[in-house]
Design goal:
The protein has 483 residues and is of the alpha/beta class. The chain has 18 helices and 27 strands.
Length: 483
């Protein structure tokens, strides 16, 4: 589609006094000024913007107050006393709030006109499957003539078409972008929004002032522990969704999901391999073309969303056979009897789900190419190695997104989990690893390239470089001589 969404456009104006009237704060200076926008990035400041000088993990927003003022900031927001002296020398209001993160969420929603209150919002959380479930639910709703949007890891989609946007590439957008995007979607006629609620997005209050109609818990595995400071903090972040949603849907086969929702006071509906919201699945009507047990569960989760929205299963089942996976989820390329799959699997559970699905169907060798991301959980690396060695005939361990880490060190940690060392090759260069894997394959073999899926870049110590597993594999397979 030709629609282009640009962050920051089309905002309304609010008097500062009106914006603050329902928010606990102390104001130093006048409050009868117009506010056009709010941001925590000094480079995005324009005339009439509030600058939220939040203390981050690496930098302190107080250090950028002067720049924000030069750019036209109409007020400074802080949440700690040590910033008052610095900000107090300015000739613009200083607003002291209890929590900068929650204030920017509140203010962003108000300035965008609280669009979530007029839309149906479904937020999906889980270690694996968020992207797939949001896209599947969107496809089903489209079949029922509802205009839908998906917001998540792979971007912003309206009715299955990806939108050109200037928003950051993040699973769950920061509120200063998120609420304006909802307003853009509302203006485009979207009634239902399916969004991914990441653990970090929940923990940092990015969804704090979004009216969420349905919250979905898919599964809980190993991921992001180090970013959150441990497993319990990761679980606590997921649990935040139980306080934000009006109704919950949970996977009854996942013990941790059940524990996260068990104390909530709001309605909870459950799904499993054979039931949707307590209703047994009629296998004569239910048909899908997507491989693997995990994808059946993803479809059932999507169907549960529609059931909770009030649709009858008998009216939805005819559409399940046409469901398609999103980009980078078991995306396949074929030539001369060799099949190459590209998948985003980057956790032990996700890699096992995909390998188990492929192992069931393939007749020849199963060749797996994967690595692990840098500056992320070290604990999952040997576990992914163990999973790969359990299912694969041949393994090539390579770089994923090493970021600031030495890729050799990452690979050594993955190797710790592999018992059958004779089946393993190491090739740090991901492009060469893909080439080697496809060169190993003969007719009937399957090659899985896991970890990056839809991504179009690779993050290394030297910077961010263009790189697409799908494009590289397509090129290599096309040029591969007939065996």
């Amino acid at each position: 589609m030709s629609i282009q969404f640009c962050s920051g456009k089309g905002r309304g104006l609010l008097l500062l006094s009106e914006l603050l009237k329902d928010w606990p704060c102390q104001v130093l200076g006048g409050i009868h000024i117009d506010v056009k926008g709010v941001t925590e990035h000094s480079t995005r400041i324009g005339e009439g913007y509030l600058f939220v000088a939040r203390k981050g993990g690496k930098t302190d927003g107080i250090c950028y107050v002067d720049e924000a003022v030069r750019r036209g900031a109409c007020g400074i927001v802080i949440d700690r006393n040590n910033g008052i002296e610095k900000a107090g020398d300015l000739n613009i209001p200083v607003i002291i709030v209890p929590d900068c993160r929650k204030f920017i969420s509140y203010a962003s929603a108000r300035l965008a006109g609280n669009p979530s209150e007029r839309m149906t919002i479904v937020a999906v959380t889980g270690t694996n499957g968020k992207t797939t479930v949001t896209h599947l639910a969107s496809q089903l709703l489209q079949k029922l003539n509802l205009k839908t949007a998906v917001i998540g890891t792979t971007g912003v989609f309206i009715e299955g078409c990806q939108m050109a946007t200037t928003y950051p590439e993040m699973t769950t957008l920061p509120p200063e972008y998120f609420h304006q995007l909802l307003k853009d979607l509302e203006d485009a006629g979207v009634s239902h929004v399916l969004l991914e609620a990441s653990s970090m997005g929940l923990a940092t209050s990015r969804l704090a002032h979004c009216k969420i109609d349905i919250g979905v818990f898919l599964n809980i595995g190993i991921d992001h522990y180090e970013e959150h400071g441990g497993q319990q903090s990761y679980l606590d972040s997921k649990k935040i969704l139980t306080d934000l949603a009006g109704i919950l849907i949970a996977n009854s086969e996942d013990e941790i999901c059940c524990k996260l929702v068990e104390e909530t006071k709001i309605p909870v509906h459950y799904f499993d391999y054979r039931t949707i919201c307590g209703v047994p699945i009629d296998e004569k009507l239910f048909s899908i073309q997507l491989p693997g047990r995990h994808n059946r569960m993803n479809v059932i989760a999507a169907l549960s969303v529609l059931r909770v929205l009030g649709f009858e299963l008998e009216d939805i089942f005819p559409y399940t056979v046409s469901l398609q996976l999103p980009e980078g989820r078991l995306q396949s390329i074929h030539k001369d009897g060799v099949t190459v799959y590209i998948d985003y699997a980057h956790t032990p559970d996700a890699l096992e789900n995909v390998l188990a699905a492929l192992a069931e169907e393939q007749q020849g060798k199963l060749i797996t190419v994967f690595g692990c991301g840098g500056d992320r959980d070290h604990g999952k690396r040997p576990k992914m190695g163990e999973v790969a060695s359990r299912y694969s005939s041949e393994i090539i361990i390579t770089s994923d997104n090493p970021r600031s880490e030495n890729p050799v060190q990452i690979i050594e940690e993955v190797l710790q989990g592999i018992s059958k060392k004779e089946t393993v090759r190491v090739q740090i260069d991901r492009r060469k690893a893909i080439h080697e894997a496809i060169a190993l394959a003969v007719a009937g073999d399957v090659v899985l390239i896991a970890g990056k899926g839809h991504e179009k870049t690779q993050h290394t110590k030297e910077g961010i470089h263009p790189f697409s597993d799908f494009e590289v594999a397509s090129d290599v397979l096309q040029k591969r001589p007939v065996v």
